[in-house]
């Protein structure tokens, strides 16, 4: 009893205290949080540890790119202070880190937070706080919904668009195809699969003869590939992350499965997927692209590649040049620099968001020729174009037009 | 009954835990110290949300949530002597219970807590039945399997209607009721604080009760306990159930505070973290849960501050050094210290 | 029927990976009577050492023995430097140290070699058998696993050191009385476990590709295999590994609706079921309890 009375007393004291402390929350330049005359503070959340740590290369590349920008004078005289925290690909941790960035570090915005689960976890918070969550590192289609979440914007082509492109291509080129799909049992795999079905339209049900999913926790996907081959399909769609995509391409080749193979864009790296799978086995594989593969010999003399190489050598010498993530990070960082430059000296959160949502035919050096970014207040998907490409045993050959795979609505 | 030289992993484990709960009739001096410490802690706990920013309040709330989960694990491992490397599974079940009730059925968040507790109790109890036959490393593997498997069950296609599959469920943050002058973070802090307090008091009472003594008897010597008429099967399953109940309530709170759940939220790393928290706090010492919660909440951040590229390695090193310094956790250390203290006062 | 045969063979091929790992798990269990959670990471690190030497141009036939020796030394060193100071700390404290080791090794490997997957050449060359269902490498891997199994059997059954190790693990106090240096026996067990882990890693990497997280799930399957077969029996462990591979593939292929999504859960469920009826695994010795 005695204890309870004490507690109440403390609680009462606390309430009185809180009334006094609630006031001084508003301080200094409230209109331009995270910005001073010499600095712009950007936040980032990436998995430096845990199961998805391979992706941390992206944040490291971005950080290195901002070093370069700063060394060259910054953006309109302001240096970028890039605060990147580890969430280990765990949504609760992502929430904690987002709150740290917004409430404790008071960043201007959060940029390139990685992964569908982590971004889903912080989306509501960011929109409530009206802090931009820009160019998120996931292709989940849900992150381009200005009506529900006006402060959240994606960057890369969304997964559904990619699926739609494959679906449409198959309907026009191989209308009698029997399709077998292997997909990763997560947001990425299911989203591409949904797009594929949308692209196939009414015939999806009859054309897809077999589906098999795998978990990231599985060591190998041999069983799935063998099962899919047994379905008698002549098109094999491989919606997998690099390690599993490589295993599947290798296995399909070993068991002599003569199917037209399509591999998801995340797994198009020549060095990290096709070489491990075997260049022989990979010949003829089809995919979509939007960035140049720096290992691809066709860009050997491209000046944009030379710039990228000079950047890697000077600012990120430990980085793996064979990794597509460095190209991705380099390009997305350039997009951010573009947005901030456009915003000029009006670096309010509102204006930065406005600039992000009004990109007109912005192109980047490492985009495939003919690609551009476009956004508007109702279109929150910066990159919607992709081009089909086929691997010829040595490099990717683009074919067909640059296709737009806009998701309806 | 034939006698063999080998003892089972479990009883060995219990022997080696090294600490048991202080007997109810401990030296009054120690009890006084503990009580004072408790009151100070309580006072700090009540004052904290008024003295810190919302971000820190959020972190402290999460810390207490982990502490409640660890408390549950402690009832199973510390009091009853059964291992579990899979308590993240019960945490996930609790979280999903709360999220689905709020999202699908529009149930108020407060009602989800008892429901999460009940469901987890049942799940834990049922899991405890086959686990009866398993001991030591075998039980460790079975529970670890549970931790790996549970997230996969939640994204299973037939359940997608309720669980939203891999996309997860977003939950709204509740406002403080009755017009209390608290912001949502402060309110959730006090809610968690209250739940934690109730959970702790119940755990203490449980340990002091007949049931608690039966549980400890099973830990210390299962065969002797059985021969004394303790229904080991029932009590071991009960321990699993109660332990899961605690962890499930923590999971429900976690879902409400984080406002989002998905299968990725419950990677088996969570189960591993709970075990680390348990050991660091002290196996069998109930208040240790709070220290364990603080450890798994804050030490990874410290490690990240020290080195981003090698944060995992730094965290690992801290863990190992911790085990060198206090192999029986904070609980073991305090017990030794208090023991030394009371011995000295007695000789004087 | 054809599909069944295919899935059986694929299951055996995949099971070979688990068997390999299960053998390493049993090895350490023989020595210390714990499961070492860092074991997969140790194997991964050894494989990276081998990969690094290959990248430096050291010939393959030299890389394997060198890696095994380095790993053995590393295992002994970890025991002496990290585990020994723990002394008689409770079991759970040991587990926390294993978790710590896990975090350290994983993080270090990522820091040094980064997380991009790397192809690892097979010592048995390319090509495959049974219409591609099982690669030459996998045949070779199973053969090596069997060979290691036989060597281990002979070692534990007939050599003085092997017998001493078993005695030290099962009853340290009595072993000490008959003059066995228990501490060194444990260190030796760690070294051997690390060496077998290195072989397992080198055999597994060409199939799953080398990266710091490659052993994360394989270790779980290895544990499952070892426990299914019986932790006290290397033969049982190898058998268990194959069983896990086969059960998993059949479940994924033939159980409708949920089979594909729940391959692993179904396999684990079956294992737990087996354990409920045979708590020490299929081949494990029954342990009788002392009051």
Poorly predicted spans of chain C: none
Main sheet summary of chain C: 2 strands, antiparallel
Which parts of chain B are unreliable, with pLDDT below 50 for 5 consecutive residues or more?
Answer: 1-26
Helix content of chain B: over 70%
User: What level of helicity do the residues of chain C show?
Assistant: over 70%
Going across the biggest sheet of chain B, name each strand in turn. 1-2
Q: Encode the helix/strand succession of chain B as letters.
A: HHHHHHHEHHHHEHHHH
Q: Terminal Cα separation of chain B, in Å?
A: 50 Å
CATH class membership of chain C: Mainly Alpha
Main β-sheet of chain B: number of strands, strand sense, barrel status?
2 strands, antiparallel
Q: End-to-end distance of chain C, in Å?
A: 53 Å
Radius of gyration of chain B: 20 Å
Estimated share of beta-strand residues of chain B: under 5%
Largest interface: B-C, 65 and 57 residues
Number of continuous helical runs of chain C: 11
Structural class of chain C: mainly alpha
